[in-house]
Amino acid sequence: MNTNTEFYENCNQYFMALRKTGKKDDSFEDEYYYTMPTISGNN
């Protein structure tokens, strides 16, 4: 598994855990969606 795929999967697990507990991490989520096109190779 490459690093980008692992990062993406870890982020999804983190977001699911937040949703289950009713919490938010807006700062991380903003940063995640801002950088996602770059790390996925889709600029």
Overview of the molecule:
It is flat and about 30 Å long. The mean pLDDT is 85. Helix content is 79%, strand content 0%. It has 43 residues and is mainly alpha-helical. The protein starts with a helix and ends with a helix. Helix 1 runs antiparallel to helix 2 (26-40).
Any descriptors?
43 residues, mainly alpha
First-residue to last-residue Cα separation: 22 Å
Strand composition percent: under 5%
Helical run tally: 2
N-to-C series of helices and strands = HH
Largest beta-sheet characterization: none
Approximate shape = flat
Quantity of strands, as a count: 0
Poorly predicted ranges: none
Radius of gyration: 11 Å
What's the mean pLDDT score? 85
Helix content: over 70%
Structural class: mainly alpha
What is the strand and helix layout of this fold?
Blueprint: H1 3-21, H2 26-40
Short recap of the structure:
By secondary structure, this protein is mostly helical. It is 79% helix and 0% strand.
